[in-house]
Amino acid sequence: MSTSETTLVCDIEVTNRAGIHTRVALMIFKTMESFSASASITNKNTGQTADCRSILELLSLGAACGDTVALAITGSDAETLQLEIQELFERNFYEDEAEETKG
Q1: Architecture of domain 6-91
Q2: So what's the pLDDT on residue 96?
Q3: pTM
Q4: Side-chain half-sphere of 91: how many Cα atoms within 13 Å?
Q5: Edge-to-edge strands of the sheet including 68-75?
């Protein structure tokens, strides 16, 4: 067993209006590209789990605004990845900023 492997689990509320949709799944996927850690998200309402390196699996979660998801990350860079993914959720995946640029 490697001592550098860390597993972190936290619950996050989906607060962006559209939930986990294509743009959000792509943002999570792209965030994963910079990390060696593995991550999954489980929709606590349905029990469905998705690998964060799969856009299709993320879309299949059906996580809507108000749902709670469990983020589980394993790897030597798990803490940094957790902070980045949590920030995406906390900033509503920059949904408000995207809408401002449309208008």
Answers
A1: 2-Layer Sandwich (3.30)
A2: 79
A3: 0.89
A4: 13
A5: 6-13, 68-75, 38-43, 49-51
Question: Facing residues of 51 across strands?
Answer: 40
Letter string b/e over residues 12-37, b meaning 16 or more CB atoms within 10 A of that residue's CB? bebebeebbbeebbebbbebbeebeb
Q: Which of 62, 74, 82 is nearest to 14 (CA)?
A: 62
Structural element, H or E, at residue 13? strand 6-13
Report, as an integer, the average pLDDT of 41-68. Answer: 97
The structure tokens 């809507």 sit at 64
What pLDDT, on a 0 to 100 scale, did the predictor assign at position 62?
A: 95
DSSP result, 40-100: EEEETTT--EEETT-HHHHHHT---TT-EEEEEEEETTHHHHHHHHHHHHHTGGGHHHHHH
For the chain, which residues make up each domain, given as ranges?
Answer: 6-91
